[in-house]
Amino acid sequence: MSASGLAVSGEAATAAGAEPLPPPPSPLDPLETTSHRQHLSADCGDIYWVNPDAVAWDHRGWHDDRMRIYGAMRRTQVSASRIHAFMHCRDAHHVFREPTTGEIEVRPETCKDRFCLPCGQLRSRRIAQALEVRMKPAADRLMFITLTVRGLPTDTLAEQIEKLKAAWRGLRKLPGWSNTVSGGAVMLEVKWSKTAGGHWHPHYHIIAEGRWVDRAWLKAAWYALTGDSDQVDVQRIDEPGKALSYVTKYASKPMDTSFTRRRWLLDEAMRTLKGVRLCSLFGTWYGTPLKEESEDDETDVLTTWVYCGSTRDLECRAERGDGEARNILRGVERQLALRHALTERCRRPPPDSLPADSDT
Ligand SMILES: [Zn+2]
Hints:
The chain is an alpha+beta fold. The chain has helices spanning 10-16, 57-60, 63-75, 80-87, 117-135, 157-173, 175-178, 215-226, 240-250, 257-260, 263-272, 311-319, 323-346; strands at residues 6-8, 37-40, 47-50, 93-97, 104-108, 142-148, 181-193, 199-210, 232-236, 279-283, 306-310. The protein folds into three domains: 1-88, no CATH class; 92-112 and 295-360, no CATH class; 117-283, Alpha-Beta Plaits (2-Layer Sandwich), CATH 3.30.70. β2 (37-40) and β3 (47-50) form a beta hairpin. It is globular and about 75 Å long. Bound molecules: zinc ion (ZN).
């Protein structure tokens, strides 16, 4: 099992600027062969040698966009440790062993970066699971609400998000809202609209618990708060499962194809969305633990198991002749092969790229 499927050329790194690069590949990485393909990313000007067989399965479907995000991270000078974690997400696994049966369990080492597609999808699923405790008892009182602001080509994304946040704060203070809605979850989605000269188009997707919010009232109130936008939508949730899928879709979705393939827009989004909450709770839902930041709960079920180290550690030990490490690695290979076979059979392959929503 390889620790890394990606490598960046030293020359390209020097030319690209002062940002430190991820460490060079380990000597345990597979030697480059003719199966390696040289990939030139026009977006960031760097050259990558990619072994498609060594790239983690979850990342294979969005390789080009992943490289675009890597380029934006370099250009916007995010920390070297963040870039390293992003580029090595799911390269290695953490290995656990049940002490009595010897059963092996493996869990991927993830970057948890908000711009990482599989990590974002995992985070959204976890937020949806956490919110089930709120949504189930309120199944007959849930609404989908969408609030948007009107943008101009001269508006920055930061200005647009601030405008959206201010209007949202104002809306919750109005009796027409607070007497009708008791609580809910608000999720930020950012798009780039090509209409009217092109502009940022952030909007809130809200799951609200309460009595029906009159659409005409909401349009008038939102127009008064934003000064120029009456773009709102309200729908009653008629099937409980729809609320979960709605949260799963929007709870952690910072990227959209409307801007990820435009270099300057991606850079602006990378800078602006730093620290911006993508999902938050309000009213009676406030305080529900989302586990958005802590992704360690997957290992909760393994508390009685023995931690054997990462696959990188085990590979090092095996190289030095450690028979136990070799045995564990064989168990890991068997489990990963089985998991891969099951996944291939039961699940659709990863998306070809980022989810392609309609460009608004
Ligand atoms: Zn990741």
